[in-house]
What does this fold into?
Amino acid sequence: MLEQIKNTAAFIRQRIGDFEPEVGIILGTGLGGFADKIEAEKVIEYKDIPGFPRSTVQGHAGRMIFGKVEGRRVVAMQGRFHYYEGYAMTQVTLPVRVMAQLGIRCLFVSNASGGINTSFRVGDLMIITDHINLMPNPLIGPNIEELGPRFPDMHNCYDKALIARATAIAEREGIKLQYGVYVGGTGPTFETQAEYRYFKAIGGDAAGMSTVPEVIVARHMSIPVFGVSVITNCGLSDEAGDHEDVQLQGRRAGARMEVLFREMIKEL
Ligand code: HPA
It folds into this structure.
């Protein structure tokens, strides 16, 4: 696995020359619009990257964008790999491992999720304060000591200082924020009503199918993480989840998320 990570990173380094990204960003469903806010210096399609699987989901473009936001060097993943697509967890998390090799010192993640906290509304932004992992753990298997410890600590998984900064920015910019626990399931089914109730009962505020593996791997390498969920549907309402609706709500809330990410990056 380490060889794979290093080979992929070496390939990308050849393409980007001496550009060293400081911030890694993963753009979730419908949130790819942030990519247009990057002054791109280099774009690499996933299909051209050795070791990268192809993103198969509608609404997820598949490319890595290297460029600047507010003068800071970033690498953004427009489209991510999900466990439900059939990839191994090592593949799902390979981009994060590679971004770490390229030098990122901070990871921003975003996703679309279903609200299970009944005070949430469709289109709300939820700052992820913690998560509950209901997928296989991506660190199962031999530990690579060079990357991180066998038993990584998961306190402060979502960096408290970054959350405090987001709160201050949102107040200043007039952006309404919710805060909560993200429950990561495998998907691809949306949850049954009983499952949404179960997620709520165990302490969840939003349900999704991504993010958790990437965050675990980033924390394994001690990279600070900031995560935002766009609430695209309300799980405990009577209406069914729908991928097109998820994409639409993602795009709408995306504009606010873009402001938040941009200002966060500016103040890093
Ligand atoms: N459940 C899981 N994943 C999701 C949902 C949901 O309700 N909405 C958007 N992604």
Observations:
- Strands lie at 23-27, 39-45, 63-69, 72-78, 106-115, 125-133, 177-184, 206-208, 225-234.
- The two ends are 31 Å apart (CA to CA).
